[in-house]
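Example 5.3 — DNA-binding transcriptional ArsR family regulator
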Amino acid sequence: MLRIHFTAEDFARIRFAPRPAPLQELHAALTTAVTRRGGPLFAPWRGRVLRSLPAAANPLADLVPAGHPPSFLDVIGDTMADGFEQIRATGPRLVRSELERVRVYAAVPAPRWIRGLHAGDETAWRTLHRAQQAAYETVLAPVWSVVQDLHREEFTHYALTVAEHGVAATLTGLAPGSRLHEGVWEWPDAAPDRDVCLDGRGLVLLPTFHHPAGPLLQDPPGRPAVLTYPAGPGLPPTAGRPVVPAETPAAVLGRTRLEALRLLAEPHTTTSLARALRVSNATASSHAAALRSAGMATTTRTGRSVAHQRTALGTLVAGA
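Solution (predicted structure tokens):
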């Protein structure tokens, strides 16, 4: 069981990662591939991944023997380059201690490049960078736009659930079977048995679409903990997956109303909105009222003038 202990300060510091993290998603995908998680439904995907990984990615297997990755790999970066910069900034003492920890689980001596990484050799760091990039290009690059779409959907769902039901119900909703009791979030099926005390550092929630079972918790000292949890349709996304077409919001709202929503990123009077949309004041007022009733816009009156502006929900819909 995994038990995450919250203080009141931690609840105030829960946040949802605004974008997917390519290195974390890559690590989740490789973990699923080599540990055979997900059962037979993942078998075709797993076979394709393991057959297609280039030789340049092989060092990653040396670095993560027996499925025990060193903690300095646990970073959140918006791009592969950003993630690797964070890894490379790890202090040499932590790099050495983590390599010594994970290599305990390995049945064979460490290869030469791992020994170089332990010694801080720049050539070894370049080997790691090339291995991560090669694995990303093979495993994630073909489906990265789909992962981004899925993340936006999950982000929107999280935001609406928090607004409607609160943080506690949202947390347990992310993990069926978990419960929040007296400030402790319990995941009964998570292994190994582990207690993590946040102690005011907060928690970042990061969905993954390549890891079918159980949470992946990164607990770096002095930084917010990161909980990577399974999300999505239950299978790894594929390049052929039908995605929500860009015109779907227009099909629901209508093109003119969607354009009004996008214009309302900045405050507009009814007259200025009508002028921008090239419609009458009455039509612009009708669009603003419809968006306001759906919670996607607000209207503020100052004297005889009114100003319309979209809400956070409106921003999410406009960005879809």
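Remark. The chain has a mean pLDDT of 84.
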